[in-house]
Specification:
Largest sheet: 6 strands, mixed
Shape: globular
Distance between the termini: 26 Å
Structural class: alpha/beta
Strand order of the largest sheet: 4-1-5-8-6-7
Helix content: 40-55%
Radius of gyration: 17 Å
Number of helices: 8
Amino acid sequence: MIIVILILIILIVGDFSNDTLASEFPLLGKVIFIDPGHGGRDPGVVYGSIYEKDINLEISKKLEEELSLMGATVFLTREVDIDHSSIYDARKKRGDLYRRIKMIDENDLKTDIYLSIHINWYNDGYWKGAEVLYYDSNSNNKRLAEKIQESLKKDTDTTRDIRTTSLYMYKYINTPGVLIECGFLSNYQERKALQTEEYQRILAKSISFGVLDFFQSS
């Protein structure tokens, strides 16, 4: 909705060419799904009263804003604190992930990429830094991971590198995309930063510029 209003304003106030629109909205025409990890009955990693699912959603909403301002059509697999499991699912987590995959893969608009937003955890509080993981099923997954990781290294203090994953959702999804672990809830400094709107916005902007670099280098 944000991008539609902006484009209408531009078209009303002046005669803009396609080149101008492409410059102002470099992701125009791209369809992106953001998947805020966990939700509802599934809190993700927890530290006291701090739930991963809440931070995931806040980062995802800011990421939606940043990508929309670049012209992308953006959808979230959840916009509130819910999961997508059914009362009939014998395995609730698997049912939730299955429905997220269906949302991304099977919609009226062809999804170009997905971005799954999560927060990391390790028993040793020393570890920190955002990292991007991908399932090695196609070259686009790895290249998207590389572009976002490069951007995160420029904008945050992460020194981590991309890694592969074979977790259920990323193994069976057909749309190109990545899992972004935005930091470690188990690290004191990063835990404090991840709860702030300022750092959440830094992450959102950095990821969006990584996505832009991915599409522009295609």
